[in-house]
Amino acid sequence: MNKLIKVLTTLGIVSIIFGFAFLYRKDIISFYMKNFAKTDSIPTLSPNERNEYYLNKDYKFVQNTTNFVPEKKEDIINIYYTILNSGLEDFTFQCSETYKDCIADVKDISDDQTLLSNINNFVHAYNGFKNIETEYDALGKVSVHIVHTYTEDKIKEINAKVEEIEREIYTKGMSDEDKIKAVHDYIINNSSYDKERSDNQIAEYDSDTAYGNLIQGYGICGGYTDSMKIFLDRLGLPNYKIASENHVWNLVYINDGWYHLDLTWDDPVVTNGKDILEYNFFLITTEELEKQETNQHSFDGNVYQEAL
After folding, report:
1. Same domain (yes/no): 14, 68
2. Do 44 and 180 reside in the same domain of the chain?
3. What is the dihedral of CA 308, 73, 141, 41, to 10 degrees?
4. H-only helix segments in the chain
5. CB neighbour class for 74 (10 Å; exposed up to 12, middle 13-18, buried from 19)
């Protein structure tokens, strides 16, 4: 009987403890964060952790940050941008104790593929993601894992090709605009639009990447745009990929203004199979773009603010 009483008493105490812990779980977590979790070092990202394709450029929608303890949703967006822009595969940041909606906002961002793709458009093509995964816990710890689109082997092959092209098409005294035109012409003259992939989803080539355009000779809009972005970044010009619902092209700052550059639409597919090189979308303003009335170039002005 005494043993039974002891067991029941123990169970009762345990139940009370668990009940207390559940009832005051938020206060307990807050106490832990304040007195224990904070003893860990604040998340940081040193310059030597960035890869060689890091772009030291900020835009109206996204900016590089050194603050990895976010206080608001915009801080989280900038953290994702910085992680991607630095070429990292894994990074962990910590929600601020005072930011009550932090995990909810992290979930919103990590579940929003359109937003993640938009952030991705501001980084170097080689640092862009193929897959991005986010994990988080009740203590506000957020871990991001990235699988990049380009492998190291393909990057080496593309870079060798890019250097070869530059030696071939750049001449002494060329302006940046002249170089952009030379790249524009080279890519269009040496690759074809991958109609099989676009129309029938037959992926024989890596045509959604620069590898398809520059190495295999076939591209769709993602490939044309990545290819041009690689050259624009090597020229050191502020630029990013700009996207509509079903299309992507380049936006670049040159000659004291922002201009659109769409190689896909300057390389039209014609029924007779003839190669055509056009300049309808070569360094044009947003006003000129809107006059084209393609129904493929409507973009989110909240994201791509430089184009407004």
Report:
1. no
2. no
3. 80
4. 2-23, 25-35, 73-85, 102-111, 113-120, 152-169, 176-189, 195-200, 210-211, 221-234, 286-292
5. middle
Please identify, among 148, 175, 190, the residue that sits at the C-terminal boundary of a domain.
Answer: 148
CA 43 to chain centre: 21
Expressed as residue numbers, the domain containing 29 is 2-38
Q: Write the pLDDT tens digit of every residue in 95-127.
A: 999 999 999 999 999 999 999 999 999 999 999
118, 177: one domain: no
State which of 148, 181, 208 marks the end of a domain: 148
Based on the structure, what is the number of domains in the chain? 3
Residue 29 pLDDT grade (very low, low, confident, very high; cuts 50, 70, 90) = very low
- Looking at the structure, tell me whether residues 293 and 163 fall in a common domain: yes
pLDDT score of 70 more than 90: yes
* Domain match, 26 and 79 both: no
**What H or E segment, with its residue span, contains residue 92?**
strand 90-94
pLDDT in tens, 255-272: 999 999 999 999 987 765
Token reading at 126: 């080689």
Confidence of residue 273 (pLDDT cuts 50, 70, 90): low
pTM of the model: 0.87
Q: Can you tell me the distance from the alpha carbon of 15 to that of 280, in angstroms, rounded to the nearest whole number?
A: 74
Are 243 and 222 in contact, with CB atoms under 8 Å apart?
no
Q: What's the CATH code of the domain at 219?
A: 3.10.620
For residue 214, give every residue at least 6 positions away whose Cβ sits within 8 Å of its Cβ, in sequence order, or none.
Answer: 158, 161, 162, 165, 187, 191, 227
- Phi then psi for 217, rounded to 5 degrees? 85, 15
Q: Is pLDDT at 65 greater than 70 in this prediction?
A: yes
Residues 176 and 295 in one domain: yes
